[in-house]
Amino acid sequence: MASSSSHDLTNSDITRYSRQLILDEFGPSSQSKLKHGSCLIVGVGGLGCPAATYLAAAGIGTLGLVDYDRVDIANLHRQVLYSENGVGQSKVASAKEAMTRLNSNVTVNCYQTILTSDNAIDIARDYDVILDATDNVATRYLLNDLSVLLDRPLVSGSALRFEGQLTVYHYQGGPCYRCLFPAPPPPETVTNCSDGGVLGVVPGVIGSLQALETIKILTGLEVSYSGRLLLYDGLRGSFTTVKLRSRTINCKVCGNNPEITGLVDYVKFCGSKPNDKCLNLSILNEEDRITVELLQRIDKDSFLIVDCRKKVEYDICHLSNSINIPLEELSNAKEPVILLDNIVTDLNKNIFFLCHHGNDSQKAVKLVNDNIFLLKDYKPYRVIKDVIGGIHLWSQLVDPSIPQY
Ligand SMILES: Nc1ncnc2c1ncn2[C@@H]1O[C@H](COP(=O)(O)OP(=O)(O)OP(=O)(O)O)[C@@H](O)[C@H]1O
Ligand SMILES: [Zn+2]
């Protein structure tokens, strides 16, 4: 007969979790704490999928999943809870299905919605830990304030290109996100995975570590990254930890006299929405822009397309009458217009800048026009415009043989 002790695990729990149960630092009492613990995972993408997988496997009692999105084929290289036949389906429903297959003892609650100031408190109030696995600034501030207002630790992760970061905010007197970043960055300086790219394994590493920190919080093990930031460089293979500034006493949300006592309008505060998949900048006037429909109709010999995407993107696909001058090269040039004239020597050719979605191409035209304005003796002799919507819209409206990425 089993005797009762520091835990309420069933015999099948004991067998199932035996490999972690027998760890001296863990034991049955920690497993029991996990069984009664809960975590709200916000964002079931590159970070959320590995985090949810390990937390479900580890035997957390209740997991909440928040995501408004559906599975896309371009998610599959890193969002490992999904499979090809789930493309187009709700992320939270697909994730729940996969997690229940893995561990049917875990209660999984799905919230297929954008987490906003209006629903966040109701959704999050019953969870012990909040795990930020989202990819945008507005949600980062929302989750930070939510964690402070509900007094829950926030396990925060991010991953881009080959790099990842991890830290735990608002834990045992440690700083919150606002203590470190009181103001959001300008929206045009923020890069996401669809613009900047990400190697699939990198969010896998960070999301797994987010699960580990969550397990430590729930079981009372010492948390590694409260007040400390992990910087992971997957290309060099380095893990670096930096100590963060302590809690700021005049922080607007967790300071001694907080100004923020309820959730605010984070879209207004950050100037961007959680579901802005692609920023639509409007830097240029209409007369400095050309539509893909018009571009398709004009004489091909009268212009040259200057594709200002990165070389690696140009190598993926490009239009036939185009050359590649990356925006970075143009911005590094002392005189961008002279660089352009030295490359496009045919004076009769007009120039249309093209990029992925039509943001960088506007920056390129502006760089050149600003430069022309400063060069006193320079006489503009050709039309320079940008292509609205970039190669993505060209593929959608004009030439479907161009791949979309
Ligand atoms: N406020 C929010 N409410 C609910 N879900 C959110 C919110 N903000 C972000 N998300 C979700 O967080 C996840 C982040 O995942 P990830 O960074 O891997 O990017 P993605 O949007 O899936 O893919 P990609 O950026 O490559 O198109 C997404 O599934 C997104 O829908
Ligand atoms: Zn703070």
TrEMBL record:
Primary localisation category: cytoplasm
Binding sites annotated in the UniProt record for ATP: G46, D67, A74, N75, L76, H77, R78, K91, D135, N136
Family annotation (InterPro entries): MOCS3/Uba4, Rhodanese-like_dom, Rhodanese-like_dom_sf, ThiF/MoeB/HesA, ThiF_NAD_FAD-bd, Ubiquitin-activating_enz
CDD domains: ThiF_MoeB_HesA_family (cd00757)
Pathway: tRNA modification; 5-methoxycarbonylmethyl-2-thiouridine-tRNA biosynthesis
UniProt keyword annotation of Cytoplasm present: yes
Domain named Rhodanese: residues: 299-403
Catalytic site positions: C193, C355
Signal sequence, renumbered to the chain: none
EC number, as in UniProt: 2.7.7.-, 2.8.1.-
GO molecular function, one term: ATP binding
Cofactor comment text: Binds 1 zinc ion per subunit.
Essential cofactor(s): Zn(2+)
GO biological process, any: protein urmylation
PROSITE patterns named among the record's database cross-references: RHODANESE_3
HAMAP family with a match to the protein in the record: MOCS3_Uba4 (MF_03049)
Protein family: In the N-terminal section; belongs to the HesA/MoeB/ThiF family. UBA4 subfamily.
Name of the protein this chain belongs to: Adenylyltransferase and sulfurtransferase MOCS3 homolog
Organism listed in the record: Oopsacas minuta
